[in-house]
Amino acid sequence: MRYVLGLDGGGSKTECVVAGEDGTIAGRARGGGVNRNFISEEDFERSVHDAVQGALDAAPQVRELAWAAGSMSCAGASMRAIACAYALDPANIQWLGEALPARAACEVAHQRTPDLVVVSGTGSLVAGWGRDGKQRSVGGAGSIVGDEGSAYWVGVRALRRLVECYDGRRPFKRFAHELARALDIPDLRTLIDRVYGRGVRPMTRDEIAAVAPHVAALAAAGEPFAAQLFTRAAGELAFQANAVIRMLRMEDDHVLVQLYGGCFRAGAVIIEPLRQSIRACAPRAEVLPPLKGTAIGAAALALKAIGVNTADPNVRRRLLEGGVRQGVI
Question: What is the pTM of this model?
């Protein structure tokens, strides 16, 4: 049995699965975020090690690896050490970005190949594939000049509203009261100290993004401003998605759209306005349910690289069952 690694790395976490050539998921583990724009090299190496070595520890039968593919950069000391320990040729470690593993995960989950992938996790981006198969991407420029419609984008705006409520620019009503309680922020001074860390340890990008699930809970409970934030996030994502649709001249096509990222766990409050905005540009567009992760897609691409037919019903079934069982698809 040959084995491969599939990695899903982002700003907040890294998932790794070990897959056999028959599609069986032998191991899975999680590490921290791996976006090198926002973390130290030491933290990057720790995240990769925790995810990859943890997955391999869960699969003690694995002695060698044939391929590794991931949505994050696999270049680093930890991966090189693991490659050496498991006889993995460094030439068989492949970085694919986020869009291709999401596309492959869609093929496993839905047996369909999307034309568009909309990513909204800690950050955001949109990728599309034209009739010639070439990829076109927008967004993904990071939290300072990009990441529109992401969990980080929502978190920043939620904290700004909380500041405005604390300093008296807006009434201190339900949104501010419940968010302050959820985050354990009793006053403005505490909020400012939390955000900037008194010059010692400011809130990280993923910690700000972690505010978004609290906003999502408020939106689900009918709080107007929380719902408005996710509607605005949907508008930002649709702006990117529709730009790609127009670039690829797909306005009249049946555009299949796959969603991926933690922000979509908010549900209909972001998905429905996004769907409506995309259909305003491409009336025949179809938006699929969001994926939880892309590690299974990365594993599928790694299996393809070693000659496995992942369209084989038995291989696909095992990948899908393993992904569902492990909660990564």
Answer: 0.92
3-105+293-326 CATH, one of 3.30.420.40, 3.90.226.10, 3.40.50.150, 1.10.10.10: 3.30.420.40
pLDDT in tens, 73-93: 777 899 999 999 999 999 999
**Which of these, 120, 67, 124, lies nearest to 96 by C-alpha position?**
67
224 C-beta neighbours (distance < 10 Å), count: 12
Q: Where in the chain is CATH 3.30.420.40?
A: 3-105+293-326, 113-287
H-helix or E-strand spanning residue 19:
strand 13-20
Q: Which residue has the higher pLDDT, 310 or 206?
A: 310
Q: Is the pLDDT of residue 10 over 90?
A: no
| Region of residue 240 (left: phi > 0; alpha: psi -120 to 50; beta: else) | alpha
- Which candidate, 131, 116, 4, places its Cα nearest to that of 69? 4
Query: SS3 breakdown of the chain: % helix, strand, coil, rounded to 5?
Result: 50, 15, 35
Say which CATH topology domain 113-287 has. Nucleotidyltransferase; domain 5 (3.30.420)
**Could you give the CA distance from residue 89 to residue 100 in angstroms, rounded to a whole number?**
22
Q: How far apart are the first and last CA of the chain?
A: 24
The upper half-sphere exposure of residue 21, i.e. CA atoms within 13 Å in the direction of its Cβ, equals 11
